[in-house]
# Entry
Amino acid sequence: MSHPTTASSRSSRRRFLKGAGQVTLAALTIGFEWGASSRRARALSAGPKTAPFAPNAFLRIGADDSVTVIAKHVEMGQGAYTGIATIVAEELDADWSRVRVESAPADAKRYANLAFGTIQGTGGSSAMANSWMQLREAGAKARAMLLSAAAQQWGVPVDHLMVEQGVVHERTGHRKATFGALVARASTLPVPATAALKDPKDFKLIGQRAPRVDVPAKCDGTAQFTLDVREPGMLVALLERPPRFGATVLSFDGAAATAVPGVVKVVQVPYGVAVIAQGFWSAKNGRDALKVQWDETHAEKRSSAEIMSEYRRLAEQPALSARKEGDAQRALGTAAHRLSATFEFPYLAHAPMEPLDAVVRLTPERCDIWAGDQFQTIDQANAARIAGLAPEQVYINTLYAGGSFGRRANPGSDYISQAVAIAKAHGADGTPIKLQWTREDDVRGGLYRPMYLHSLEAGLSSAGELVGWRHRIVGQSIVANTPFQSMIKEGVDPTSVEGAATIAYAIPNLSVELATTQVGVPTLWWRVVGSSHTTFAVEAFIDEAAHAAGQDPYQFRRKLLANHVRLRGVLDLAAQKAGWSSKPLSSGRGRGIAVAEAFNTFVAQVAEVRVDQAGTVTVERVVCAVDCGTPINPDIIKAQMEGGIGFGLGAALYGAITLKDGRVEQSNFNGYRVLRINEMPAVEVHIVPSSEAPTGVGEPGVAPIGPALANAIFAATGQRHYVFPLTKS
Amino acid sequence: MATTFTLNGESRTLDADPQMPLLWAVRELAGLPGTKYGCGMALCGACTVQVDGAATRSCVLPLSAVAGRQVTTIEGLKSREAKAVQAAWIDLQVPQCGYCQSGQIVSATSLLEKNPAPTDADINSAMSGNICRCAAYVRIRAAIHAAAHTLKA
# Structure
């Protein structure tokens, strides 16, 4: 049994959403059972004669002993379903083999992400952290009710009873009853106001390697993604989008498209022109035949190189303060040794394996949506607005998402909004329509991790102490001009500076500044958000400072983290497990270290690389230490670290979206290169034992790998790189 | 135009545009959704099926090209190697989002059917066409070795 973890607490998405909670949407309480284990769920719901025991919004126990946990978070690979089920099953003392997970409907009242305030959604590695106490209580109260039911039935005091693996039995006698046998009586009992939670030393599932609930179906092709939704009479739509961001449809000629066999209709929507057909192939051929004239008056026409030139100019000027301690300017001016560097990071696409897709069935009274939905109540509100319905008339069915990395959590709900607009343009006649993005649509579709420039200066005393630090960040805001711009405080978007403004190193004189730019390229959070670039710059530059101070980069960091027990803990653990001080590498090889906090999880990594004569970099091994509080499922934590490392390595080595005269130059996995198996290093993950509340692991593992890699390349070659990805520098 | 071929051991005739990629014919016409669309250009491997036993990217293979041939999708994998791969995948908890896994499993099965004891280099060569954005590569490699070990026993 197992589970995952995705939790946390402060930072970007979460903080931002909390600030924006006012926007919130009416709560819906209509259940629509679909979702993860839909097939089994439906088969089951056809059966039971006794009404299930459903003591709260997160749990349903059937007379057949089935335990259904209702997940308010999307399962997009991070293991949320398993983690959620583990927490409930632990306090319930359920038989893990009888536990399954079903997705919750959109309903902010019951299913809000507590880290987001009143919005139901998944992000900021918050699933475990915000669910922890809520689901422990849900499980514990249900367990108390089942115990009471058995006590009543047998006429014995509750404390004569115990629960093991879904069975209530007498401590000394031999009467026993499965959960299912107690369902009818338990349903008549009041829900207790409180219930004792387990002492963590009694945990049986938490901390163990509970197998993931979604794995079997993901090994035989039966797991259901949005791509797999088939409804009677369903049509497939492809949308022709503008060739440049900000362009709009001037006119179109759909005659040739309509003539393609299988094409049903060509419709204009605010996002472009959609070809609706009987299947993907017809829709694609139809779209290829479509002729659209675009109005590019307001389109972004610059190249990314031009935009970066502007960023370089901006970096020469002081910008808005994101953090200030002491007097950095003075400290730098009087430092015995001063160093500076500028780092450039590109736009990045998320490129989840499942190209975006959504199925919409729209009538004048109702809108049903099937999607790998990450922002349920936001998507519900956007769909309602476009459809001209009230939010409670929109029913979201959250399916497995084939990856996301942030892409499916977007304030405009682009892929869902487009599908609703197409269904509306089709006539809102109840025909199910699947909007399918191609990979090209995805890579060229915007909502990228913004391009950033980081300019840093550091000052060292003659004794090699870090006395001053100035960090200037130039780039677009993710939340500006979205419903969430209230996150911006005094001009500073916290998602642009997290990881830099929150630098943990003890530096007496510190200035972190932000210049927010206006570019017509839509941007979005990308796995680990701000720390995807801030940690890169900070950890590469602190390494440079360590070398300038003539000190070991691990020890240099360690001294500066004296007051940060958990950060230093992972740093020490990674260094020790990697043999940092004890095992020198052979010639041509190098080791680099980096450490980060993201979403209240602490991660350190040591990368070992080999660089051959031609300069080809091979990452041979990565040692990772992570402190995410109570490890709910160590195997999922390891998997998320492994995956985060691979994801981050691909970006650091190859990832870049570039524009030429406003047009995206990449279109598929040939131009937008991601990591492949032959490029994946061996990974060792070490988890810090902890009894702190759990935090998330979906994103933090990405943060340190880029700088650990860059620092390892320096150790191997003596060369620093400042322009990323590495293949461009 | 009708194309007749063997799909997961059964003769099927699909009346469709012969240029339609096998992927969409299998998914939308034959109703087998396990094979996934990822790139449409044979760059990612999510659509991998076996054609006459060889791992093949179905997203660029016209339906007409499989006339008279044997096509096996994730739903039809039955070999001893396939069962060992799937068991190892579950045992090592390989999938994350899971979307690429049908393709990964078909590729891994095809590798083991031809090479019962692949080296890391063999795995790189057979599997580097299958992208996993969750980067579950450490476990994919380990699971192939584990399956090979099971098959040897």
